[in-house]
Amino acid sequence: MYLQIIEQIRERVAVGDWARDAEIPSIRQLAVALRVSVITIKRAYFELEREGVIVTHHGKPSRVAEVPNLEKLRGEDLDQHLDRALHIGALLGLSPDELAERLERAAKRRNDEEQA
Amino acid sequence: MYLQIIEQIRERVAVGDWARDAEIPSIRQLAVALRVSVITIKRAYFELEREGVIVTHHGKPSRVAEVPNLEKLRGEDLDQHLDRALHIGALLGLSPDELAERLERAAKRRNDEEQA
Amino acid sequence: MYLQIIEQIRERVAVGDWARDAEIPSIRQLAVALRVSVITIKRAYFELEREGVIVTHHGKPSRVAEVPNLEKLRGEDLDQHLDRALHIGALLGLSPDELAERLERAAKRRNDEEQA
Amino acid sequence: MYLQIIEQIRERVAVGDWARDAEIPSIRQLAVALRVSVITIKRAYFELEREGVIVTHHGKPSRVAEVPNLEKLRGEDLDQHLDRALHIGALLGLSPDELAERLERAAKRRNDEEQA
DNA sequence: GTGGTCTAGACCACA
DNA sequence: GTGGTCTAGACCACC
Does the pLDDT of residue A102 top 80, yes or no? Predict the structure, then answer.
């Protein structure tokens, strides 16, 4: 339950959706947006603070931690995506080379989009 | 054990042995055939449903999901992960080569784990 | 997994967030937004179409069903919220009268906000 | 059976018998004390964790969640549901009285189910 | 020591 | 008949 929420928030921070030191939604806002109980979000924020990903202060809005292990977090997130890609690649019977090639094509696509 | 069963079923669906939208053996039938507990098959079916490979409906027999082009969907899923990996890689300032290398290392890690 | 997504979409339609006959996010958009696999969303949309909540056409964007059992859907959703309220009320040891009073206060609050 | 256990634990926490952030019996201890399987207690603890009542951490002993004012959070959760009920009620064109009546009927339904 | 997972079978709910 | 849930105990992983 709250593990999924933690996962999502961690991803957003890693991906840069939520920049460091930026304010993040209040517990109540998130609860409404995700349509889950306030208690569940509270639990997730508590864990994320333990991990050093976010900081909370009484009364003041929660923020993404100033100098957290962002690099490390991103590295883990990156490896997770690569790992899942490998998993699906295996399901599709792709060879490592084919996968690497697919990665290259994806990179090219991104480049083209940025140019446009 | 249930992982092996999942693998086998995935294979049968991929190969076309079990056609799309076709009924598949009930959990009890399979349990008897494979000489394992009903629960073990149930666990496998549950995972396969999460993956979108099969569909269960309570009183009715389970079926292979009739998603058109399961492979195509998986391909999109794969590209999604690669794309996010590229995004995070960019944030970390990794060059395409470094990312490819990281993918290789991840693949090696997976291989080692399977061997163990 | 996809059950939660179905639940959320049903709620959004019931609540009027997504109006009838309005276009709804594409499978891929939702997959990215919710950070889940494309396959999972596909499965959810499939079920929702079976329920008559949404309609999908090849190539064209999916839409909220024209004249679905919206009334019925809303009724069920309403009762679900009331039921959960009763559940939590019981946990808090509130009497039925106290709960009814709390409902009244909430109604008053809504009214005041609308006036403002 | 595990529902009864959940109920009992909730009661103990609510009453203050088990203080916030205090360690609680291990699943094995409780299993022996209540003469049920470890699994049954595990199931109960799992549900209680989902609700935000307790916290588990793998190798470490489980604790009562140190959420400040669990009651307050529950109250907010309750008001959230009432608010949504009001929203949908408005969409359905229900008068406040009709909504209150519907709440009463829902309460009656719950009561009947408990009796059964 | 702790909690977590896997396999198991009996019983229940739905069709 | 079907799939779904509950209780069970052995074994594993973490601390």
Answer: yes
Q: Is D73 close to A42, i.e. CB distance below 8 A? A: yes
Answer for B2: CB within 7 Å of strand F. no
Say yes or no: B44 and B74 in one domain. Answer: no
Nearest CA distance, D17 vs chain A (angstrom): 21
CB distance D76–A43 less than 8 Å?
no
Q: Write the Ramachandran bin of A61: left for phi over 0, alpha for psi from -120 to 50, otherwise beta.
A: beta
Which residue is nearest nucleotide F15, judged by alpha carbon to C1' distance?
A: D59
Q: Using CA atoms, how far apart are residues A16 and A39, in angstroms rounded to an integer?
A: 26
The verdict on C75 and C57 lying in the same domain is no
Assign residue C26 the CATH number of its domain: 1.10.10.10
- Cα(C21)–Cα(D59) distance, rounded to whole angstroms? 52
Across the range A27-50, mean pLDDT stands at 82
Query: What is the domain range of residue B90?
Result: 70-115
Check pLDDT > 80 for residue D28.
yes
Q: What value does the mean pLDDT take over residues D76-95?
A: 90
Q: What is the pTM of this model?
A: 0.84
Average pLDDT over residues A7-14: 85
Number of domains in chain C: 2
